[in-house]
């Protein structure tokens, strides 16, 4: 652990967790759409949704695995039609992120969920990007976009999506891979990721959420990703753990997501502590906060309580989030200085 972590009284740890600067690197913007906003957009866009009320929709948020969540998540996203809708969704998230002292967010979006319904790529990306620009100017939060390919669709469709997005190449920093994991291994997308690499895009992929350690290996060796999203199944493979530690491959871990999708039976069973103990660059993230019961600080506070983590791990997780981000070294150093200041204030 870092030598510069000052001692923190246990009763001050929750306030420190909330106030410390942090980066969020695993947030699906469609998963930040709260039921109230879903209903407001459905009304203003004349889209019908198969739920009678906000409460009725919230009651449906009882998931048994990833697929049971994805079915409802894609239904919720069907209300997004205009550029203003995409702006409003991202802005609502960024305001919550700022309140949680998130200083930087790398935001996933799923264009195929929208283009399949006739929404233009331009509408999606411009709306989201405008919110990112405004967040920097008025909230002091830096934010960038990562385009995710849906892995339950074909690689051919991923290539078409990339083509549609390339005129807006400067408005996103990388690509990812999400949706139904088991049965859709990373290698299905080897060619399109190779093309994205040639284009200078950053590469990440969901792997080892429900899928086996083998999917983490192929995400690393065949897709050549720079970070693994989730990756919690890696603890089943000691050789993989050694590889992740040696190459300092970050894992963007999402504890409340893992709990709600039954990856771990109880939050107390989560392996975040084991990942940190093994020297991995693990980070804490919210994944789909509107569906999983919590934004960044909810994830930190509930997980620290459940798995009994301490100030040294808080420091490590925040420092890891900066190290793992796709920004330049001077900015990372500036955030590390702010982290030190937050710890000094709570010592
Ligand atoms: N896993 C895979 N796909 C997703 C997720 C997730 O946790 N959230 C939104 N799309
Ligand atoms: Zn995710």
TrEMBL record:
UniProt remark on cofactor binding: Binds 1 zinc ion per subunit.
Binding site for substrate: 288
Catalyzed reactions: adenine + H2O + H(+) = hypoxanthine + NH4(+)
Entry EC no(s): 3.5.4.2
Site (Important for catalytic activity): 230
Keyword RNA-binding: no
SUPFAM superfamilies per the UniProt record, alphabetical: Metallo-dependent hydrolases
First-level EC class: hydrolase
Family indicated by similarity: Belongs to the metallo-dependent hydrolases superfamily. Adenosine and AMP deaminases family. Adenine deaminase type 2 subfamily.
Function: Catalyzes the hydrolytic deamination of adenine to hypoxanthine. Plays an important role in the purine salvage pathway and in nitrogen catabolism.
Protein known as: Adenine deaminase
Organism of this sequence: Ramlibacter aquaticus
UniProt lineage: Bacteria, Pseudomonadati, Pseudomonadota, Betaproteobacteria, Burkholderiales
């Amino acid at each position: 652990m870092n030598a510069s972590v000052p001692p923190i009284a246990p009763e001050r740890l929750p306030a420190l967790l909330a106030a410390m600067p942090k980066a969020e690197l695993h947030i699906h913007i469609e998963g930040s759409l709260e039921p109230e906003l879903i209903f407001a957009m459905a009304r203003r866009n004349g889209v019908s949704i198969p739920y009678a009320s906000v409460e009725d929709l919230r009651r449906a948020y009882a998931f048994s695995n990833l697929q049971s969540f994805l079915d409802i998540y894609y239904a919720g996203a069907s209300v997004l039609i205009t550029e203003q809708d995409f702006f409003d969704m991202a802005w609502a998230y960024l305001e919550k992120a700022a309140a949680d002292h998130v200083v930087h967010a790398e935001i996933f979006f799923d264009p195929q969920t929208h283009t399949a319904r006739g929404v233009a790529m331009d509408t999606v990306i411009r709306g989201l990007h405008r919110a990112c620009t405004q967040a920097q100017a008025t909230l002091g939060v830096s934010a960038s976009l990562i385009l995710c390919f849906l892995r339950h669709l074909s690689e051919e469709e991923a290539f078409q999506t990339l083509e549609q997005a390339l005129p807006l190449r400067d408005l996103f920093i990388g690509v990812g891979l999400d949706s139904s994991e088991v049965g859709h291994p990373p290698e299905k997308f080897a060619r399109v990721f190779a093309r994205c690499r040639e284009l200078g895009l950053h590469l990440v992929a969901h792997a080892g959420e429900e899928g086996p350690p083998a999917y983490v290996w192929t995400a690393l060796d065949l897709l050549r990703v720079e970070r693994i999203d989730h990756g919690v199944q890696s603890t089943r493979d000691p050789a993989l753990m050694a590889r992740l530690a040696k190459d300092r491959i970050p894992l963007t871990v999402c504890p409340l997501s893992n709990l709600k999708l039954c990856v771990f039976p109880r939050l107390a069973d989560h392996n975040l502590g084991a990942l940190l103990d093994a020297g991995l660059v693990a980070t804490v993230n919210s994944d789909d906060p509107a569906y999983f019961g919590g934004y960044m600080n909810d994830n930190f506070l509930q997980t620290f309580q459940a798995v009994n983590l301490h100030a040294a791990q808080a420091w490590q997780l925040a420092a890891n989030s900066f190290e793992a981000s796709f920004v330049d070294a001077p900015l990372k150093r500036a955030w590390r200085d702010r982290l030190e200041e937050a710890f000094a204030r709570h010592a």
